[in-house]
Amino acid sequence: MIPDDDPSRPLTVAHPDDPGTTYISLVGNTYAMLVTGEQTNGRYCLIEMRVPDGGGPPPHRHDFEEMFTILEGEIEFTFRGDKHTVRAGSTINIPANAPHSFRNASGAPARMLCMCTPAGQDEYFTRIGDIVAGKDAPPPQLSQDELTERRRRAAELASAYRSEFL
Predict the structure, then answer these.
(1) Where is the signal peptide (predicted)?
(2) CA distances to 9, 17, 153, 162 from 48, in Å
(3) 97: phi > 0 → left, psi -120 to 50 → alpha, else beta; which?
(4) Where are the beta strands (DSSP E) in the chain?
(5) CA distances from 39 to 60, 151, 152 (A)
(6) Domains along the chain?
(7) Which residues pair with 26 in a beta bridge?
(8) Which of 14, 26, 49, 112 could anchor a disulfide with 34, C-beta 3.0 to 4.6 Å?
(9) Sheet with 163-165: strands ordered across
(10) Cis before 118 (ω within 30)
């Protein structure tokens, strides 16, 4: 039997241009927190990722599922050591615990949706990145000390968010 409806949970309509959207600059990318774990009772989060040419995170893994839908451009995913170029219109799923990374090597900007289940990645990104004014805002100009601090904080918090850098 399924539980009764919970009327305290409202309908969520997400749009990256909504003035309430939080934008995070992280590793040269801009992430829009479209649907947060707070809104889904921790079930999942949905993040729009704008990845400039050359952008992307270092190799890592985590114990939750991660699904990407490429909306514009193309992204090169490295999954368990093998490279896969994924183009607009395609969706890929990264199984929990699998080593992976992605990089925009296309020469043009790319945009994708990332869904993580359960949620938590949204909170992690908010804690380690820098809030920016909008989807087209330039990343902050960080000093070498500030970059070192961001890397330290990302490494320090990774295990709390069930992630590991490789």
Answers:
(1) none
(2) 22, 11, 23, 21
(3) left
(4) 22-26, 29-35, 45-51, 60-62, 65-72, 74-79, 82-87, 91-94, 100-103, 110-117, 130-132, 163-165
(5) 26, 28, 29
(6) 22-135+156-165 (2.60.120.10)
(7) 29
(8) 14
(9) 82-87, 74-79, 100-103, 60-62, 163-165
(10) yes
For the chain, helix, strand, coil in percent to 5 are 15, 40, 45
Residues 29, 55: contact at Cβ < 8 Å? yes
Strand partners, 93: 67
Helices 121-128 and 144-158 meet at what angle, rounded to 10?
150
Predicted TM-score (pTM) above 0.90: yes
- How far is the C-alpha of 100 from the C-alpha of 27, rounded, in Å? 16
pLDDT at 130 over 90: yes
